[in-house]
C-alpha cells in the first residue's frame, strides 16, 4: 500500500521534532569529576609551663622541663609548649599566667604551689586547665599533683642512721612548708628506726635556689658536728661543701653524684614524664577531669636514686630490703607512737599515718630541731 503525501508530511514533522529534541539533550558524563575538599587544619594546642626556678638548675625545675620535652616528643604536631622561669610569688605570677592565656594556652602546668595567685586566674578562665604541683586546691579546671617523697626520704634517713658517727644529722630546707616538714620528719624517723640516738637539725634558708645560703647552711651544720646532711635544694652547693669537708651528703630531684664524687649517698629522684604525658593525652581526647589531687607513688614518679660509690654494702642491703617491702607489700613505716618536739603523741600506737596526713604534715617529730 502506498503512503499518501499527507502521511509522508506527518512523518517528516515527527522526525524533525525528534532530532531537535536530541540536539537539546545535555551530555551526561560517564564519571562525575572528583571534588577536592580543602585540607582540614588543626592548630597545635598550646601547653604552658610556669617554673619556680631556672630550667637549667639540674634539679627540681630541670625534672619538670624534661617532662615538657617528653610531651613534645609524645605528641608531635598536636601540641606546642612555652615556659617561663623564676616566676615570683607575687601578683606577677598571676599576670604571667594571664599572658599565657592571652597567647592561647589551654593547659598550664605550674611546678610549685602559688596558691591564690593561681586560684584567681583559674576561676576567671574555666575553659583553661590548671595543674599545680604541691598545690592544695581543686576545682573543675584545677588539680594538684605531687609525689610520695616521704618513702624514699625515709630510706635515705635509714642510711644516715647507719652511717653517722656523731649521731648528729643535718637538713637544709627552704621554708617551713608541709613538704619540708614531711621530708625532714621522714629523714629523722628513718634514721631513728635503726639508731635511736640520732638527732636532726634543720636550717631553713628561705629559698629553693640560693647557692650562697646553702653553702653557709652546710658549713654551719658541719661546724655543729653533723656528719651526714640532706637537703631539699634545687642546686648542688651543699653537696659541694660536704665533699670538700668529708661528710656524707644526700639531696633531692636528680642524680647529683658529680657534685660529691666520694661523699654522695643518694637522692629523692623525680620523674614526671609519664604523668605529664598521661594528663595531656586525656586532655587531647576530651576525657580530662578536674576536682582531684594526685600523689605519684614510689616507683612511679619518685624513688631513691642509685647508691653512691662509697656507701657500705651492708647499709645498701639493709635499706634496700625495706624499699622492696614498700614496693611489694605497701609497707608503711609511719606508724605510731609518733611524738612531736614537745613530747605530745600525735600518732597513737599502732595507727598508720594516711597519705593525706603525710602530705599535709605541718609539725616536727621528736628529734627534729629548727622547724617552728
What does this protein look like?
By secondary structure, the chain is α/β, with parallel strands linked by helices. Helices cover 39% and strands 19% of the residues. The chain has helices at 5-24, 60-74, 91-102, 116-124, 150-163, 178-194, 211-223, 237-245, 273-285, 313-329, 355-359; strands at residues 45-50, 79-84, 105-110, 129-133, 142-147, 168-173, 199-204, 228-231, 248-253, 264-270, 293-296, 302-304, 338-339, 345-347, 368-369. The strands form three sheets. A seven-stranded mixed sheet has the order 12-10-9-8-6-7-15, with helices on both faces.
Write the layout of secondary structure elements.
Blueprint: H1 5-24, E1 45-50, H2 60-74, E2 79-84, H3 91-102, E3 105-110, H4 116-124, E4 129-133, E5 142-147, H5 150-163, E6 168-173, H6 178-194, E7 199-204, H7 211-223, E8 228-231, H8 237-245, E9 248-253, E10 264-270, H9 273-285, E11 293-296, E12 302-304, H10 313-329, E13 338-339, E14 345-347, H11 355-359, E15 368-369
Parallel strand pairs: 1-2, 1-3, 3-4, 4-5, 5-11, 6-7, 6-8, 7-15, 8-9, 9-10
Antiparallel strand pairs: 10-12, 13-14
Helix pairs in contact: 2-9, 3-4, 5-6, 5-10, 7-8
Q: For the CA atoms, what is the radius of gyration?
A: 33 Å
CATH T-level topology of the largest domain: Rossmann fold
Structural class: alpha/beta
Measured by DSSP, the beta-strand proportion falls in: 15-25%
CATH superfamily of the largest domain: Response regulator
CATH architecture level-2 label of the largest domain? 3-Layer(aba) Sandwich
DSSP, total strands: 15
Distance between the termini: 131 Å
Which strand order does the major sheet show?
Answer: 12-10-9-8-6-7-15
Q: Describe the sheet with the most strands.
A: 7 strands, mixed
SSE pattern: HEHEHEHEEHEHEHEHEEHEEHEEHE
Return the CATH class of the largest domain. Alpha Beta
Backbone shape: globular
Count of helical regions:
11
Q: How many domain units? A: 2
- Which residue ranges are poorly predicted, with pLDDT under 50 across at least 5 consecutive positions? 1-41
Amino acid at each position: 500500500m502506498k503512503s499518501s503525501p499527507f502521511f509522508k508530511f506527518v512523518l517528516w514533522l515527527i522526525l524533525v521534532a525528534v532530532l531537535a529534541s536530541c540536539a537539546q539533550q545535555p551530555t551526561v558524563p560517564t564519571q562525575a569529576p572528583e571534588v577536592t575538599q580543602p585540607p582540614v587544619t588543626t592548630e597545635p594546642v598550646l601547653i604552658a609551663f610556669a617554673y619556680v626556678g631556672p630550667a637549667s638548675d639540674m634539679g627540681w625545675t630541670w625534672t619538670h622541663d624534661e617532662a615538657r620535652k617528653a610531651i613534645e616528643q609524645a605528641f608531635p604536631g598536636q601540641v606546642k609548649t612555652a615556659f617561663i622561669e623564676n616566676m615570683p610569688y607575687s601578683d606577677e605570677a598571676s599576670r604571667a599566667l594571664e599572658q599565657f592565656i592571652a597567647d592561647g594556652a589551654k593547659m598550664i602546668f605550674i611546678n610549685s604551689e602559688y596558691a591564690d595567685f593561681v586560684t584567681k586566674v583559674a576561676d576567671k578562665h574555666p575553659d583553661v586547665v590548671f595543674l599545680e604541683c604541691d598545690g592544695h586546691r581543686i576545682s573543675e579546671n584545677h588539680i594538684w599533683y605531687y609525689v610520695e617523697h616521704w618513702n624514699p626520704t625515709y630510706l635515705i634517713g635509714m642510711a644516715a642512721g647507719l652511717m653517722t658517727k656523731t649521731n648528729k644529722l643535718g637538713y637544709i630546707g627552704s621554708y617551713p612548708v608541709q613538704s619540708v616538714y614531711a621530708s625532714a620528719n621522714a629523714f629523722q624517723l628513718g634514721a631513728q628506726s635503726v639508731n635511736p640516738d640520732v638527732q636532726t637539725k634543720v636550717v631553713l634558708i628561705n629559698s629553693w635556689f640560693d647557692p650562697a645560703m646553702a653553702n653557709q647552711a652546710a658549713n654551719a651544720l658541719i661546724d655543729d658536728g653533723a656528719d651526714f646532711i640532706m637537703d631539699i635544694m634545687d642546686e648542688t652547693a651543699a653537696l659541694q661543701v660536704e665533699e670538700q669537708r668529708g661528710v656524707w651528703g644526700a639531696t633531692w630531684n636528680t642524680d647529683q653524684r658529680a657534685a660529691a664524687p666520694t661523699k654522695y649517698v643518694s637522692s629523692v629522684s623525680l620523674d614526671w614524664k609519664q604523668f605529664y604525658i598521661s594528663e595531656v593525652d586525656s586532655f587531647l581526647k576530651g576525657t580530662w577531669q578536674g576536682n582531684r589531687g594526685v600523689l605519684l607513688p614510689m616507683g612511679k614518679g619518685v624513688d631513691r636514686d642509685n647508691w653512691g660509690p662509697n656507701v657500705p654494702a651492708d647499709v645498701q642491703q639493709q635499706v634496700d630490703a625495706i624499699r622492696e617491702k614498700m614496693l611489694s607489700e605497701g609497707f608503711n613505716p609511719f606508724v605510731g607512737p609518733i611524738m612531736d618536739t614537745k613530747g605530745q603523741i600525735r600518732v597513737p600506737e599502732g595507727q598508720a599515718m594516711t597519705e593525706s596526713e603525710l602530705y599535709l604534715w605541718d609539725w616536727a617529730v621528736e628529734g627534729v630541731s629548727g622547724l617552728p
